[in-house]
Specification:
The chain is α+β, with helices and mostly antiparallel strands and 622 residues long. It has 21 helices and 22 strands. The strands form five sheets. Strands 1, 2, 6, 7, 8, 9 and 20 form a seven-stranded mixed beta sheet that branches. The longest helix has 23 residues, at 458-480.
C-alpha cells in the first residue's frame, strides 16, 4: 500500500500539516500526509479569515519563502482589508475574509498537484521509535508506515474534549472524533504535556438576520492581495457587518453561568487571552455594557454566517436566547451552537529552533500541539518543520530565522525560549524589530532564503529582484532630482507644511510627515518616471516606506547587528551550568531545562538576568 520508506510523514491535514507536506514535497522529499479525514484538509475550524494584526505579516512571510497559504487565500478570498493603515507601515496588516469551502478545496487541489506528496486517510495512534529516533508511524488499523522523519500537527485533536454547557463529549472538532494514543506514548518517552482550551462561536443562518439594523463593514476600495505571485486581486467583494451586545444580552448570558463549564470547574485548562469567550469578556470587563460582534459571511454563495466575538461554551438554549436579543439577530436561526474544546499540547521548550524534539531525533512538532492559536501561527510552524525535516534527513544545514529576519523567527524563538502556558498568539508588539519586519518587504527579506534552500522558485526570485531594483532606482531618482519652489510649494501648502524658498532635492520634501506618494505623483517629473519605468503599486509603496522611515530602519538594523554579536557566541551542547556558582539558582534551573544554543537566546529566557549573562560571557572569555 505504501512506499518502502517515506522521507517525511506528516500527521494531520490542518494549516500546519498542509504547509509541512507542501514544503517537504516541493523540496524533493517523498512525503506522506496522513489525516483522519481527507475532506477536511486545510479546514478553517474557526473564523473564515486569514491574516490580521501581525498574522497578515506571517502569511506574507510564508508566501515569500514559497509556501501556499497566501496563494490559497487569494484564490478563495471574498473580502480584503489592510488594517491599521492610519498608523505607521510597521503596523499595516493585511486580512482577508475567505470562502470556507473554497479555501479547503484550493488547499486540497494545491497538494494534489504537488509532486512527491501522497495521501492516506486514517488515525495515527502511535510512533515507531528505534534507538531514540523516529522511524515511522502506526495507524489505528495496525498498519506501520516507515519514514525517516515525522511531523506531528495534531491541532486540537489529541484527546480532544468538546464542552457545550454541562454536556461534554470527545472530539477534535464539531462532528469529528478525537485522536488517541500519541500523547500517552510521548509521555512514556519522557515528554511533558498539558491541556489548553479554545472556543468557537455559533454559526447562524444569514437569511434570518436583519442587516439593515447593523453597521456595514465593506472591504478596501482598492483591494490588495497576499501572495507575491501573479494571483489576481478581488474585483468584487462581499460585505461584512457589525452589531453589538447590550446589558440585556449580558444579563441573559449570566443566567447560564451556573451551567458554564468555564465557571463550574469542568474546564480547568487556560484559554486564549486575546480571543476570550463572550462569558469571559462579561466576567473580566464587568464595567462594559457592550462588546462588538462582527457578522462574517462564510463564503460567496452560502447563507452560513460566523458571529465573530460571540465565542462561547454556554448551554445552547442560553446562547440562542441571548443572541436573539442582539440588534439584527431578533429572528436568528442556528446552524450550530458555539462550543469550547480542551486538548493536549506539549510545552514547546522541549523543542529545538528547527521544531525537532530534543528527546526523539527526526520528530517534529508544529501548530497547536506547541501551544499556539491561529491558522497563521500554525501554518508558519508547519512550513518550518517541513523544511527542516527535509534538510535533516539529507544532512544539510538547518534553516532557522532570526528575530530580526521574520515574525516567524520571533514566534518560534518565543516558544522555544520562553515556552507558553496559554495559547500563544502573535502581535506586532512581540517583535522588537517590527519596522524591519513589515508586510510590504517580506519577499525582499525571505525569498532569497527560500530560493537558496530550494523551496521558492526561480520565478519568485526574479520577481523579487525586479521589485528591489525598481524601488532602489525610484529612491535614487528622488535623491538626485531637484524640484523648484513653484512646483513643490502648492503641495506643501495643501498639507500645512512650511514652504521652501529655493530648489532642493525631492527626497527632502518627500521625507516630510504629511507628504505622501500621491502628493509626489502630482509632480510631472515623478509621474513620468513611474510611467516610463512601469512601476506598480508594490514598488511605489516600497519606495515610500524606505524614504520616509529610513532613519527608523537604520536604527533597528544597528540594534539587530548588536544582537547578532551575542547570537555568534555559541554555548556548547553539553555545557554544565551547575558548576557556575555565580549564576542565580533560577538561572541555573532555567538554563539547564531550556539548553539555549547561544548567549542571545539565553538572555531572552524569563528568569535569566543581565548579571547571569555577564557570568556566562566572562566564563567564555568574552
Amino acid at each position: 500500500m505504501f512506499e518502502k520508506e517515506y522521507d517525511v510523514i506528516v500527521v494531520g491535514g490542518g494549516h500546519a500539516g498542509a504547509e509541512a507536506a507542501a514544503a517537504s514535497a516541493n523540496m524533493g522529499s517523498k512525503t506522506l500526509l496522513v489525516t483522519m479525514n481527507l475532506q477536511t484538509i486545510g479546514q478553517m475550524s474557526c473564523n473564515p479569515a486569514m491574516g490580521g494584526i501581525a498574522k497578515g505579516q506571517i502569511v506574507r512571510e510564508i508566501d515569500a519563502l514559497g509556501g501556499y497559504s497566501g496563494i490559497v487565500t487569494d484564490k478563495s478570498a471574498i473580502q480584503f482589508k489592510m488594517l491599521n493603515k492610519s498608523k505607521g507601515p510597521a503596523m499595516w496588516s493585511p486580512r482577508a475574509q475567505s470562502d470556507r469551502m473554497r479555501f479547503a478545496e484550493e488547499w486540497r487541489l494545491a497538494l494534489e498537484n504537488t509532486p512527491n506528496c501522497d495521501f492516506y486517510q486514517e488515525m495515527v495512534n502511535g510512533l515507531l521509535v528505534e534507538k531514540g529516533k523516529v522511524v515511522g508511524v502506526k495507524t489505528s488499523l495496525g498498519i506501520e508506515v516507515r519514514g525517516k522523519a515525522v511531523v506531528l500537527t495534531n491541532g486540537t485533536f489529541l484527546n480532544g474534549l468538546i464542552h457545550i454547557g454541562e454536556k461534554q463529549f470527545g472530539g477534535g472538532r464539531a462532528g469529528e472524533k478525537a485522536a488517541t494514543g500519541i500523547t500517552e506514548q510521548l509521555l512514556q518517552f519522557g515528554f511533558e504535556s498539558g491541556r489548553m482550551k479554545t472556543g468557537t462561536p455559533p454559526r447562524v443562518d444569514g437569511r434570518s438576520l436583519d442587516y439593515s439594523k447593523m453597521i456595514l463593514q465593506p472591504g478596501d476600495v482598492v483591494p490588495e492581495k497576499f501572495s507575491y505571485t501573479n494571483t489576481k486581486p478581488l474585483e468584487h467583494q462581499r460585505d461584512c457587518h457589525m452589531s453589538h451586545t447590550s446589558k440585556l444580552v449580558h444579563d441573559l448570558l449570566k443566567e447560564g453561568f451556573d451551567r458554564s463549564p468555564m465557571f463550574n470547574g469542568r474546564i480547568k485548562s487556560i484559554g486564549p487571552r486575546y480571543c476570550p469567550s463572550i462569558e469571559d469578556k462579561i466576567n473580566r470587563f464587568a464595567d462594559k455594557d457592550s462588546h462588538q460582534l462582527f457578522v462574517e459571511p462564510e463564503g460567496w454563495n452560502t447563507v452560513e454566517v460566523y458571529v465573530n466575538g460571540f465565542s462561547t461554551s454556554l448551554p445552547e438554549d442560553v446562547q440562542f436566547k441571548a443572541l436573539r436579543s442582539v440588534v439584527g439577530f431578533e429572528k436568528v436561526k442556528f446552524f450550530r451552537p458555539g462550543y469550547a474544546i480542551e486538548y493536549d499540547y506539549f510545552p514547546p521548550t522541549q523543542l529545538k529552533h528547527t521544531l525537532e524534539t530534543k528527546l526523539v531525533d527526526n520528530l517534529y512538532f508544529a501548530g497547536q500541539i506547541n501551544g499556539t492559536t491561529g491558522y497563521e501561527e500554525a501554518a508558519s510552524q508547519g512550513l518550518m518543520a517541513g523544511i527542516n525535516a527535509h534538510l535533516k534527513i539529507r544532512e544539510k544545514e538547518e534553516f532557522i530565522l532570526k528575530r530580526d529576519e521574520a515574525y516567524i523567527g520571533v514566534l518560534i524563538d518565543d516558544l522555544i525560549t520562553k515556552g507558553t502556558e496559554e495559547p500563544y498568539r502573535m502581535f506586532t508588539s512581540r517583535a522588537e524589530y517590527r519596522t524591519l519586519l513589515r508586510q510590504d518587504n517580506a519577499d525582499l527579506r525571505l525569498t532569497p532564503k527560500g530560493y537558496e534552500i530550494g523551496l521558492a522558485s526561480k520565478e519568485r526570485l526574479e520577481r523579487m529582484e525586479e521589485k528591489q531594483q525598481k524601488s532602489d532606482a525610484f529612491i535614487r531618482f528622488f535623491e538626485k532630482t531637484s524640484v523648484l519652489p513653484k512646483d513643490i510649494n502648492p503641495i506643501l501648502e495643501s498639507v500645512n507644511s512650511a514652504l521652501v524658498k529655493q530648489s532642493d532635492k525631492m527626497v527632502k520634501a518627500f521625507s516630510r510627515p504629511k507628504v505622501t506618494m500621491n502628493h509626489m505623483l502630482q509632480l510631472e517629473a515623478v509621474s513620468d518616471f513611474v510611467e516610463e519605468n512601469s512601476l506598480d503599486r508594490e514598488v511605489l509603496e516600497q519606495a515610500e516606506v524606505q524614504v520616509k522611515y529610513s532613519g527608523y530602519i537604520a536604527k533597528e538594523k544597528n540594534n539587530a547587528d548588536k544582537l547578532h554579536r551575542l547570537e555568534d557566541v555559541k554555548i556548547p551542547d553539553n555545557f554544565d551550568y551547575t558548576k557556575l556558582k555565580s549564576l542565580s539558582f533560577e538561572a541555573r534551573e532555567k538554563l539547564e531545562d531550556i539548553r539555549p544554543v547561544t548567549i542571545a537566546q539565553a538572555s531572552r529566557i524569563s528568569g535569566v538576568s543581565p548579571s547571569d549573562i555577564s557570568v556566562l560571557l566572562v566564563f567564555m572569555g568574552r
